Amino acid sequence: MAAPPAIQAGMNSGFSVFGATASSTAGPLVNPDTAMRVTTVWRCISLIAGTVATQPLLLYRRAGAGQEIAKEHRLYRVMCRRPNQWMTRIEFWRLLMTWLLQVGNAYAFIQRDGRGRVMQVLPVHPSLVRVYRAYDGTPVYTFSLWYGTEQFTVTGDNMLHLRWGAVNPYMGLSPIAMHAEAIGDAIAARQFGSQFFAGGAAVSGVLTVQGSLGEDAQRRVAAQWAAAYSGPSNAHKTAVLGNGAKYERIGIPPNEAQWLELRGFQVEDLGRIYGVPPHLLGATTKSTSWGTGIEQMTLGFIKFSLAEHFSNIAQSCERDLLLDGEDDDYFFGHDLSSLERGDLKSFAEAMSKLYNIASVNPNEVRGRVGLNPYEQGNQFRAPVNTALAGDSEGSGIGAGASAEDIAAAVLEMLAPYLQN
After folding, report:
1. HSE (side-chain half, CA atoms, 13 Å) at 95
2. Among candidate residues 235, 228, 271, the one with its CA nearest the CA of residue 253
3. Tell me: the pLDDT tens digits for 157-186?
């Protein structure tokens, strides 16, 4: 590992130690552990992390005006298939994305051989990493691979560092720390509901009896009342009061306190932190305001929320993993075809239009749906009326084409209808 340059200052983000606690006005203490117990936070993080992890990350080589997948490069095997000996690609990226969405930073130690080539990448828990600024402005990392083990210090070319919501060039910003108040409100509302239902779904009141009762008698009557009418199993029982006893409720029921409305609002409020639309969080009671509705909201989620994470991962890998000079020929990118495909009808219509203008060939269309290529499937076929004048070769039918060629082209266009 490289020796560190002179250290100028240390920095940290929202939670300087992973699991540290931030207070909220509502009362509950907020940290990544307690926040993940809020169903909306869990859903937001698991949705984004899982979606990003399942989209294939690919290493491309620039080839003239186009590009091709660089399967022969060592980085392709490591970053696109198996980051290390015990983790799959999905497990690796889901873990890093979970850390990133919790504390704004995710780290993976880059193990290189003597020639600088990447052998494997090992995820490092954010609580085990400290980031410093060197005198030349570059980041320096001090970390341990596990709790209580040896500490190492490396420069940026040996640490894959994902940042989110950064307010300085070196560290990301924890969304949980920044929005501790909103998350604390959700925790408090959940605790209130739990205590309410544990009390038998009935708010506290006053039990009045005729005459005077001593302390022992008061405790006995209260205990008998609690045993008979408290707890979920006793909810909605009919109380029988004798000797002129009266029960008067003095609390405010949850519906009057708009508890359910508050819980519904918190789903949308916490979803805004991560840019997740309500329908992906199970909140579908309100009509949408985006174009055709839920479909447009989903496309907006991909475009305005997920796209940032895809670009962040690709550019971070290029910065930290490629050797000097390789970034001129290689770059990372995600294959988002499955995510953007939509329903089968829309996909078929889109592929048909691209095929009809010779933008894709049959094998490329078959590859999109997981089918094997076939012989001569790499030829591009354009409709007769779009062929260049005088072009009688290739996929188009030119002005000099024979009657047999024209008939064959028309028959090919009509084949789907003739089959029906």
Report:
1. 15
2. 235
3. 999 999 998 778 899 999 999 999 999 888
